[in-house]
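Predict structure. Chain length: 934.
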Amino acid sequence: MSSSHMAFAQEAPAEPALQKVLVTGSNIKRTEKEGSSPIQTLNAKQIAATGANTVAELLHSIPAFGSGSSVDVTDGGFARGAATASMRGLGSSSTLILLNGRRITASAYADPNQGKSAVYDLNSIPVSAIERVEVFKDGASAVYGSDAIAGVVNFITKTKYTGAEMSASISANDDGEFARKSASGIFGFGKDRFNAFVSFDVAKRDSTIIKNENDVEKGMYADINGRLNPFSSSLTTSPFFYAETKPGTKNFATTYAQRAQIINRLDCPASQQITGNMAAHNMLASDPLVGRTFCNFNIDDYAEVQSAGKDANVLSRATFEINDDVTAFAEAGYSRSERTYLRVPTAFRSTASTTVYQLNGAPQQFQMILPVGHPDNPFPTQRAAVGYRVSAPGGASNLNESYRLLAGVRGTTGAWDWETAVLWNRAERTENWNGMLYRPTLEKVMTQNWTLAQVNADPSVTRDLENRGFAQVTQVDARASTAFGQLAGGQVGVAFGAEFRQEKIGLTPDMATQRGDIIGLANSSADGQRNVSSTFIEVRTPFAKYFEMDFAGRYDKYPNLKGNFVPKVGAKWTISDRVAVRSTYAEGFRAPALTQVSPGGVQSFSNVVDPLRCPDGVNPATGADKTDCKKGISSLSAATPDLRPETSKSYSLGLILAPTKEIDVLVDYYRIKKVDETALFSAQYMVDRQDRYPGSVIRDNNPANLVTDANGNVVPNSGPISQVNRSYVNQGSTEVQGIDFEVAYRKSLGDLGRLTANLNWSYLMSFKRAERPGEVATDTSGANGGLSDYATSVGDNPKNRGNLSVNWTRGDHSLTTSVDFVGPVSLLRRSDNNVVYEKPYCQYGVGQPKSAYGLGGLPKYSNYISSCDVKSWTTTNMAYSYTGFKDLTLSFNIKNLFDIKAPYDPRYPVEGFNPQLHNGQGRYFRISANYHFM
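Prediction complete.
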């Protein structure tokens, strides 16, 4: 839904009362809504009709937003607890978020994933205070500076308010899951020249576990992925023991063929015991659990599709008219977003070593190996590895808090409008981990011959940890604008200004993790600060009554980088009363994030397919085992102080039509190309190309652990991977182009009311990325880019996304029906850089050529899906509001009216849906009430 009312210069009445306003993307006031750049606007009524509970849900319904965002639904890894926006699928770090025209601080995260180096948390935006949202769908670095390469989202709150109102809502799906309760209010007063208001939002959401999620393809996930089958995990307090196959090799029995050298205890209740079965438990023939009776731990009781959370936002604003020409203003805000995550008691399997990180110092390897004669070792002549789960409860939580203070003065002096302000915005983060393995205690199994039972009984076997972080921006800015002279189309508008900003970030892990005492958790640290100075200028030139041009330029100076100037040029030609054409050219830049260039780094754990030890991604090579097909490895990602800034060039060409007074049409073509992107190659990317990056992939090259090829020859440097070292780089380029199509219809029905309709459609023509300079940039639109071109790390980019809404209003009644569409996503493998496959093949299922590599397995996938894609998803929504009671508005929303299940996606067996594109809520109800007290 959006507002799309066109305004042509010749249609505006030439009266002094015509008001000029500021529109996102410019500092020059204008009378026309549609300028040279495309802007989509949603007002408060339209926002309410979407039924969105959060700002993130609201933006997800706008077709211009694509994959690459952080989704605050479950434990989100590096960005857990945060929700971000990603325009054009270019990532949250290329989408600038503004609150009342000024940037918000990035949150205290160090997310190394592609396009997420700057995390602007949408949870810090107060929903109830929003008056409208303006989405600037064009490059805006020339106006706002770094991070505005893909576009800008400006959340505009009320500026003045007198009175009081309260709202409350409750929502859940038809199973009572994904529940959320919220309350909000705003109180304002004013007298003479003074006005002030305070608004608040509070909300609580409940946890939903996967067993209670019904609006996904449960049958397919159960059969293909083994989701929710009776077998969950063999790691319990009843341990497994794996014999060492060759003395001193640290190579342990892990396959069905070696099952005689694997022993497990059965000291659990009979109700927790199961016998492994290939069909019933979705096991491979090589799994040593096949035919074995063992204790089963049900981790599904801890697997969430929505985590529990509490949110609170407070925003206050005051204005005081010092005189007729000068107004002072101030804002103060606080937000709090708390998430609580279920997490299973910690387990380990020591058939492979685990990296234990220290903050300062070389990583160490930990591997519990029971010597011969150990009281728990059942093998009389062989050492043993262990599979075990401690009893101490797990769990995690994340708390984000944000503080914002703004004070300024604006006014008019002669023909000049001016404004200056001081902004302080700080985000703080507290992250807690419960029940993490404590190495000094666990080591007593090997150093003091403690039994596993003794260690488990010791309360110190686990530790609760607390990581802290902050991010802060302090800013002083000043701007002025005026109009002068006279061209054929009117006066020349000009604006200029300056901005001085200090950015800080600090991330401090728990001391136990810093010392290297914690197994299974890494450090994220940062200590950065920089001062940024900027100046900008804009000029609007109405050369003729029907033709105008806009010019903008901005100069930014970052420490250790050359000064950077980016220009922007726009033009609009009004051909007739009904037709106009517009176009823009803009250059942009994005400075490296503080976490990418400051002292510190990100340590992490991930899974990779080892191409030497599991060439096809499914079947281990001779001398390897199944763990090499999904190898858990550690990764160290160091900062790179000499990173260059990203640069971009963007183009747009638009057609504005008003064929009748009831219909407006916008058609906008866009093209954005980024080069020198600051990114961190994925661990899989490094492993697949280890010859290009000597020393980056660390292996255990004990001769006994090397694999052999088909001819029995030993493959050099093919030991098990233990660690991958990575650093941030200026990689190749990304180019995206597409078309936005918007139609607005308005019709008075006389006594029957008023009808409005809006269609927003975004068509992705191409999405190309060259991961390294010189590599081939292949179009991956309509697909998962990292599969379509295996050399890239591109995410899911459907070719089509759209929204159609129709509203009927009559008196006290307002009814809105809307339809959301998300196109399909192909999972076909088509190329690997300059190698184009003769015939595309599917990443999942069976039937791939013998030359295929890095496959995803899941042989039963082919029984269900022949097109190798994630299907399109169309949902219908309804919203009704009634204002017939004095001072009271009642609203009722249904999302996904026809209860359409989220499409099956083989990559998300826990969630049951692709969180970038879909949700598993099914038919979802929301009831709300708003009461005005005065």
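Summary: Residues 389 and 914 are 30 Å apart (CA to CA).
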